[in-house]
Amino acid sequence: MTRTKNSLARLAVTIRAAIAGGHARLPCATLPRTAWQHCDNHLRQISRARERGWYLAAANLERDLRYEVARIRAELAEIEQQLGTAPTTDKVVPAAEVYRDLVTLGAEFEDWSFDRCERTVSVTTAPIELEGIYLGPFMIRLHWDRVRGAGADTYQVLALDPRPAATRDDITHPHVRQEELCEGEGRLPIRRALAEGRLLDFFLLVSNLLNSYNAESPFVSLADWFAESCADCGTFVNRDDRYVCSACESSLCDECQLSCGDCGDSFCNDCLGPCEGCHDQYCQSCLKRCGECRALRCHDCLDDQERCNCCHEQELAEPEVPADGLGQAALSA
Amino acid sequence: MRILVINNDGGGFADYVDVDHGMSVDQLVRRQIGAAKPDHYLIRVNRQPVARDQQLQDGDRISITPTKIEGA
Predict the structure, then answer these.
(1) Is A80 exposed, middle or buried (CB count within 10 Å of its CB: 0-12, 13-18, 19+)?
(2) What confidence category does residue A333 fall into, taking pLDDT thresholds of 50, 70 and 90?
(3) CA–CA distance from A299 to each of A257, A259, A305, A313 (Å)?
(4) Nearest beta carbon to residue B65 from set A101, A205, A217
(5) Which value does ipTM take for this structure?
(6) Subunit contact A209:B71, Cβ cutoff 8 A
(7) φ, ψ for residue A128, nearest 5 deg
């Protein structure tokens, strides 16, 4: 055997031992406590966001809550199935099979590696493109010492050339959020492959899932991948259809974009202000302060001397003082 | 003859099955996947890609993995 084959053989023995353990194995069943805690946190945050009128934040949190609820449902269904069927997780393949899987990884994937210190085996997929949208290659990193725990942290999916959704930089793939894959219908075969030590099957299943798109329930749909959130109402707006506030450069939908009554440029609600005379909306550049009372006025509501109508009329109403009026007034006093 | 069948579709299935001598890869796959299209699956015999008409041998390991798996 060459040195490489020796190291792979030892690795296979190590991985197999970690997955199988040294004693009779119980079914890998863990209650979805983490997902439950997340739901609890999201509900509290949603309530707080609604009280403060942060509807965009509330909508985002509700999306996250829906995901966590689906995750709880899936994990409970798996526990129910394990209780109802004869345990198959005791069927861990021999170390020789793990070795053969490791040898084959190089043929199936662009690259693969292992790290004894971190207890990980990783493969790199080819670049993934879904419906014409390039997402880049992904690394699937398996922590072999966590397989028995069957938790969500057993493996990670890392974007090597991240092209995340425009509105969520933690979503690098329609079904990957914060390096965690939402397995959907792949959950049972993935978990079974891991429990039985079939590493090649595990990596192929995850890779095939990454190369598939379920338009019914992504974190962010591919149709909205490049869409941005309207700064005022939160709805998604495609890059080609959006308006940009000329002051703060935030993205706006057609409904929320406002035009300055003077220059006609597009602005968001926060970057327009009212003329205190006519009450129409203007940008900061098109509003000036009255030279007398300092009130904000549009161009039409200021005279040539930059006085507002009120100050102008007030001056007109004041009686004229004659040329020698001051002297007569002094004598009278 | 006895072969190991690993069907990664649905809930996953990995067990030894008895098949007739001379059974081809294609025949076994169709038996496993029912009405589904064989083109929608990645087929490996002893971890190698094979022709669909290849005849199975005693002790072969065949894995059937769907190429399209819907995440959530």
Answers:
(1) exposed
(2) very low
(3) 22, 16, 11, 17
(4) A205
(5) 0.92
(6) yes
(7) -105, 135
